[in-house]
Design brief:
Number of strands: 11
Strand order of the largest sheet: 1-2-3
Structural class: mainly beta
Shape: rod-shaped
Family: Belongs to the YjdM family.
Protein name: Protein PhnA
Helix content: under 10%
Radius of gyration: 25 Å
Largest sheet: 3 strands, antiparallel
Number of helices: 1
Distance between the termini: 61 Å
Order of helices and strands: EEEHEEEEEEEE
Length: about 120
């Protein structure tokens, strides 16, 4: 047997054994699969603006093209500054949550803003 079984992830006992597809700890009765050991931590995504600058929470950005807003007669004009942005998990490609003066809270795509 050249296989070295991993220690128990709960109690760190070195006395683990295989039972079919599972690994079992005789001391705490914890059962787990070998694949569970190789689970990688999720990597943090980097969000960049339209010119490649890395964005962070609290940054100030400006809009690089006119944006039509649903339900509004007017649009957000080029050069409009948006302060104190918040990066969120993408919702239909919109990865910035912010408040735009005159329009209120909304989500924007990072591809239509530029870091100031």
């Amino acid at each position: 047997m050249s296989d070295v079984l991993p220690s128990c992830p709960q109690c760190s006992s070195p006395y683990t054994y295989e039972m079919g597809a599972l690994l079992v700890c005789p001391e705490c009765a914890h059962e787990w699969t070998a694949e569970a050991e190789t689970v990688e931590e999720p990597q943090e995504t980097v969000i960049k603006d339209s010119v490649g600058n890395v964005l962070a929470d609290g940054d100030t950005v400006s809009v690089v093209k006119d944006l039509k807003v649903k339900g509004q007669a007017q649009s957000i004009k080029v050069g409009t500054k948006v302060r104190n942005i918040r990066l969120v998990d993408p919702i239909d490609g919109h990865d910035i949550s912010c408040k735009v003066d005159g329009f209120g809270p909304m989500h924007l795509k990072s591809s239509v803003v530029k870091k100031v």
